[in-house]
Amino acid sequence: MLELRSVTAGYDRRAPVVRDVSLTVSAGEAVGLQGPSGCGKSTLARVAALLHRPDSGQVVLDGETARGWRHRAPRAQRTAFGVVFQQPRLSADPRLPLAELIAEPLRSNGRPTDGVRELAETVGLGADLLGRRPHEVSDGQLQRACLARALALRPRWLVCDEMTAMLDASTTAALVGVVEAYRRESGAGLLAVGHDRVLLERWCDRTVGWAELTSR
Amino acid sequence: MAETTRLPAESERTEGWRTRAVARRSTRAWRVRGSAAVVAVLVLAVLLVPPFVQLDQQAVDLAAKLRPPSWEHPFGTDDVGRDLLLRCVYGLRVSLLVGVVAAVVATVVGTAVGALAGALGGWPDRVLMRLVDVFASVPHLLLGIFIVAMFRPGVWPVVVSVALTHWLSTARIVRAEVLSLRSRPYVDAAISGGASRYRVAVRHLLPGVLPQAGLAAVLMVPHAVWHESALSFLGLGLPTHQASLGTLVQTARGSLLAGDWWPTLFPGLCTVVATLAIAGLAGAWRERLNPRRRSELML
What we know:
Chain A is of the alpha/beta class and 216 residues long. Chain A is built from 8 helices and 9 strands. Helices cover 34% and strands 22% of the residues of chain A. Mean pLDDT of chain B is 81; it is low at 293-299. Chain B has 11 helices and no strands. Chain B has 299 residues and is mainly alpha-helical. Chain B has a single domain, classed as MetI-like (MetI-like fold), CATH 1.10.3720. Helix content of chain B is 74%, strand content 0%. Chain B is globular, with a radius of gyration of 24 Å.
């Protein structure tokens, strides 16, 4: 279970973007977080994935309170999250071919990288694309690789921050299908952030509007 | 009347624009080729002449002192009859060595400081950047003079002096670049994937700043050559018997007052041509890295 307890966060202490927000993702649950752009939902997702230190509040992972963020978080806590960002172009190092991109989390943890081809297959990337660099593939193909990277360490939670905002309908459907297949097989929880209410309501067990979260 | 006021047709206008753009591109290409050719000739001369040409640059021939340029001595001779072409080649050799070593040292120091400041952030960043500010607050030629004055004249004090006064801008550029790379989502993704600070720095940040740092190093070579010349000209750099572009001009001052122009002109011309050629190449590289910024010479 992933709990965010009265989190206040932002980029300037005097004007936090997220004020006193609490949100719980139960074991195996898929929670959609819906809100207009610029409201702070991405910041909240980054706090949840231990990538942004909140000004106050707590993040609790299966009863264990997070003490550090970013590099200060223990590796086991950081890698419990698979994160997929909105813009695949910015979330892929332009120098790394896709195979390296997908293998990156495995290498960082000193694990063997022979599962890369299989990971690529689960997200629908052919072996011929794995040698290409990010600028040689389309946004959709790159986002598939980013999803494969997020799944590489078999995370307990997936955080998808507007994962499909840049993609066409068929790629969106394919990626959501991949996420759901992984969740069925592993029992992982999901925090999906987006502005598309229709998509989130079809995808997630429950969808929370940003207004409901902050008006309490 | 109607004929003369007619606006050029669309196709003609775009045609004109296109030819101008092509012309601009081709003059740029020729500038790059010219610079490359000059640099190649100078580097070959500097590398090949000393080992293969059996002439002593220090050979004094008082019978042939202060000869104007001729077929025998294309650059003339100096006040003790040494051949100035040969002296210029040896001088360029020393000046380029000083320039390249100083530029590389300055770039390594600057990249290390900038990368550390950018990657660590917080108080190490503040301390390092205030250090940069302190260095930058003193005019750098003055600081360079102060540093060489602490040592006996020689090549290495000049290298140290130029390197220690020129890492600042590289440090600032690299820090800014690291800061911008550090906030990219792919660094977030790496952290989430369990990458250590070291791994993020070596795998993602450093490769991102290396092209900029390499460019800074090449841009610094001509600047460092000028500094060597300036320090030597002031009598603080290399000892006068050692030919360098700066010492050659400095020792020639006396004869210039007597109306003998060639001992000053040719070493000076060598300095200008060599540094312009290197700067031209560096400018082309910068344009490739960052096409939106018009290249200007940085000396």
